[in-house]
Amino acid sequence: MRVMRLMKVRLVNVAPLLLAPALALLGACSSTPSSPSGGGSARPSVDGAPNYQMDVSTIPDAVPTPHTGPYKASPYRVLGKSYSPMQDGRNYREQGEASWYGTKFHGQATANGEEYDLYGMTAAHKTLPLPTYVQVTNLDNQRKVIVRVNDRGPFYSTRIIDLSYAAAKKLGYAERGVARVLVEGIDPVAWQQKNEPSYLVSARSRSEAPSVVVSTPPAEVAPALTTGTTDRGEYYLQVGAFASDLAAQQLRQRLLSTLDAGVTVTPVQHSSGTLHRVRVGPVVSEDEARRLIEQLRLANVADATLVRSN
To answer: Side-chain half-sphere of 182: how many Cα atoms within 13 Å?
Structure first.
């Protein structure tokens, strides 16, 4: 979680906090690497931008993907104040100020249990369920990004969202520290159906919390996944679909360094243009699907959805 304050015109974060009593909150995090490569250096005492600079224009936005497990949306208390997260963030819409957090928290655990990456497209919010996908628009320049909310905060201000350094940089306000933004929740199912017409999700409701969201009726998928002997190569885990081939290839390279499985990029034509689908597999059993999904979760890469190869 993010607890933040402002020094001069630079945004400064106080340590990310887990949901615990106040004394534990204030003493939570000890040390962490201050660069993506680690290097064993101590976590900076003051937050800021990295001293290594990446071209953030090549970093793809988060890909809204149907969540396959329970959401983190339980009431909690931080710094003497109670918060009651909403149970559904798809229709969320709010204007306010956004801030960002960077090197001090790189590599630290987020409220969702993932690892914060200052070059990831993520965000912290006080009351959205975790995870939630949102589109954030900088109202001063109309730049937009899609981020995955996986953390809590900010708590020391009236700001409504705390973006990763990369997201703030893409929106054009990293140097200023804050910006006026519009935050809009995204329905991942509707987003996928709009951006990739061939992407069909299961009709099962969220409340059933399926371990794998499938792209065909469960009865049709079950034999292939439970036996591991039929339709080999027919099912894949899809983790993204991009209009940009470059963005798809960048995600593929990241996945190849993380997973012990094949990763492919496949272009598909539809009415609005070409989408480049990033898929892991083939997946021949339910156990393998769960194992790969867990690897993706631990790597903070993306949620995954089981789809047919066609």
So the answer is: 11
What is the C-alpha to C-alpha distance for residues 284 and 229, in angstroms, rounded to an integer? 7
**Cα–Cα distance for residue pair 104/47, rounded to 1 Å:** 5
Q: For residues 95 and 182, is the Cβ–Cβ distance under 8 A? A: yes
Residues 8-42 pLDDT 10s = 333 333 333 333 333 222 222 323 333 444 444 56
Tokens of 100: 């960002």
What is the CA 228 to chain-centroid distance, rounded? 30
Strands 161-164 and 93-101: parallel
Q: d(Cα 222, Cα 258) in Å, to the nearest integer?
A: 27
For the cut 60, the answer to whether the pLDDT of residue 84 exceeds it is yes
DSSP state at residue 8? T
Report d(CA 49, CA 174) in Å as an integer.
Answer: 8
Per the listing, tokens 């393998």 go with: 288
Task: Give the model confidence (pLDDT) of 99-120 as tens digits.
Answer: 999 888 888 899 988 899 999 9
Phi, psi of 23 (to 5 degrees): -65, -40
Residues 245 and 274: their CA atoms lie apart, in Å, by 9
Instruction: State the chain's mean pLDDT as an integer.
Output: 74
Most distant CA pair in the chain, distance: 63
What 3-state DSSP class applies to 233?
Answer: coil
Angle at the Cα of 107 (from 110 to 78), degrees rounded to 5? Answer: 30
* pLDDT, tens digit (0-9, with 9 covering 90-100), for 154-164: 988 899 999 99
